[in-house]
Amino acid sequence: MALLSFALSLQDHASLSIFTISFIFVSYVFYMRYLHSLSKFPGPLLASLTNTYKAYYVYNLTLHEKLLELHTRYGPVVRIGPNHLHTWEGEAIAPIYKGGRNMGKTDFYNAFTAFNPNLFGGTDEGIHSLRRRQLSHGFSQVSITKLEPLIESQMKILIDKLQKCAETGEIVDLKQMLSLYVLDILGEVAFSKSFESQANGHAEELDAINDHLLLSGVIGELPLQDFWKTLSRLSPIPWMRRLMKSRNNLKRVCGECVKFKINNPSDRPDLLRSLVEAVDPQSGSRLTEQEINSEAFAVLVAGSHSTSGTLTLLFWHLVQNPEIMNRVYEEIQAVLGPLPGDRTAYPITGIEASLGYTMACVRENFRLNPVFTMPLWRRVGHAGGVQIGEHHIPHDTSICISNYVLHHNPSIWGNDHDTYNPTRWLDEKYQSEKSRFLIPFSIGHRMCIGKNLAMTNILKTVTTLLSLFEIEPVDKKQGVAVRSSGIGEMEGDFAVRVRMRAS
């Protein structure tokens, strides 16, 4: 009898527990959907309840495509997290990214910190302003121009490899070749030495960078970041441990290069030297070794994938559209002339200003297939919230507008937004009106400081390779996809044949 009573008691406790949990869950769902300050904004039910909705699509490398799908279904402002809104309206750019301290960065960026917070990930506005002043000279176009010999030393290796493929008729994966090439350039300019990836034909660093971006992108979308970072180190799941191991390997490589540069100063012109010698013009302060590590790490991670990914997609559009590629080649020959035999590449000076059609192709690639797809979250700091267009965004809401979605908004770009059409940028009125909506390097005081280096690499590479080689695809394709955990790349390989152009 006592045993029966005990069993009934346990059953009652279990029933009560189930009821309590069910009540709490139903109350939470009701509050988030009907009483929360963001309940008036449309979006998927699951997204309004948990941040794992965003993290899932980051893990699957398709958040940018999912966001576009949601805007097509729900309209200009979509709730994609319990306290997160995403917009694709062009008029939202300035309020969000030029709002200063009242639109500060969220905890999302902490997930990308490997050493100290760097220029990209730092959320303290005062420290950001100081760091920007310290680094601005080293990343200026004048300073980047001095790095051209380092860039061309790696371009010479790429050209030699392509020449051999032209002679043998070998099919090459241009995506892989460009990835190794850009990584070696960053080794030269950011770490004072090449990674030798072109010579080896592979690079563990590329996989490690992908792992770091995936780890950071997923954890950044979740609460309790310290818990997830600890779990990734201790987890019995191999892929989670691999992600953290990759980040630690990158940190080790970066730290060793920085320490060597500090202990062995030289006159070699590169970004690492600029970081070591960087001085704030207002206070005279210099970067610590840990801060140099942080900035060098950011250059490696952001610079490699964003530049190689952009180059790959640009070449893909040109190669798949030979009439466009021929027009670019003709412009290069007419304006810059044949590449002199004693030069490896065209100098960067004057290219952007003089090659109107080539730049239209670059802009259209940035618009159609931006590789930087990361949602750059900002938190509304205005006490009474902020008005963005017709929408009032409450205080403390996280909000962003990501490139891929913005660049595919048909109300801005028209119904042909998914078509590669460089001629749209040749209309001066169109360019004047639409350029403000094209933000591949972000905008405002948080704009990517590496823009000059990226554009120098892109323009020197495109003009030089097209002047020397005819490139044709092995397979003619109708479209291309980007897979991205934040900084993406073309899905699949990029098989081409190359031929030397007639002298």
Automatic annotation (TrEMBL):
Gene3D superfamilies the record matches: Cytochrome P450
Cofactor: heme
Membrane-spanning parts: 13-31
SUPFAM superfamilies, per the entry: Cytochrome P450
Keywords of the record: Heme, Iron, Membrane, Metal-binding, Monooxygenase, Oxidoreductase, Transmembrane, Transmembrane helix
MF terms (GO), sorted A to Z: heme binding; iron ion binding; monooxygenase activity; oxidoreductase activity, acting on paired donors, with incorporation or reduction of molecular oxygen
KW Protein biosynthesis (keyword) present: no
Residues binding heme, per UniProt: 448
Database matches in PROSITE patterns: CYTOCHROME_P450 (PS00086)
Gene Ontology process terms (BP): mycotoxin biosynthetic process
A Pfam family reported for this protein in Swiss-Prot or TrEMBL: p450
InterPro entries: Cyt_P450, Cyt_P450_CS, Cyt_P450_E_grp-I, Cyt_P450_sf, Cytochrome_P450_monoxygenase
Family indicated by similarity: Belongs to the cytochrome P450 family.
This protein's name: Cytochrome P450
Organism name: Penicillium olsonii
